[in-house]
Write a structure and sequence with these properties.
mainly beta, 146 residues, 45% strand
Length: 146
């Protein structure tokens, strides 16, 4: 189950990293043109990059993986009723213009993804977390709708 959540987190992280924030007041209509309605449907993992380490004494584990869209690995389905399905644990999803939050039914845990890029056909998210003991996790995930 943790592996599935990690994959889900990586996928959403990739979606969030594609969103490029600007230092000026320009609206990023091209980068985040998708709407909550556009999010509903099936999204297939196509790329994930990131790193993690267990604590400040651990080495970093890095990854940079591409996936074949046609093999449909790492699928996440955002249902209209606010639930999620596919290669993830059961739960619910919330959407704002900048974030996607997944809440898993089993233990009520949450994963928050920052949206980097969101169009009707592509979603790029990122997620980051760390702790006082030096553990770190970062993932940028790209999905394609289909």
């Amino acid at each position: 189950m943790k592996t599935i959540r990690l994959i889900s987190a990586m996928i959403l992280a990739t979606v969030m990293l594609s969103f490029n924030a600007c230092s000026n007041d320009d609206d990023n209509t091209e980068e985040i043109a998708g709407t909550k309605t556009d999010l509903v449907g099936t999204w297939v993992l196509i790329h994930n990059i990131g790193y993690e380490r267990e604590d400040s004494n651990s080495k970093y584990y890095n990854w940079d993986e591409s996936y074949d869209f046609n093999k449909r690995e790492g699928v996440i389905i955002f249902k209209k009723d606010g639930t999620i399905a596919g290669d993830v644990d059961e739960g619910t999803w919330e959407y704002t213009k900048e974030k996607i939050i997944l809440t898993f039914d089993e233990d009520n845990s949450k994963i928050e993804f920052t949206i980097l890029k969101f169009t009707t056909s592509e979603l790029v998210v990122e997620t980051k977390r760390g702790s006082d003991n030096g553990s770190e996790y970062y993932s940028k995930t790209t999905y394609k709708k289909g």
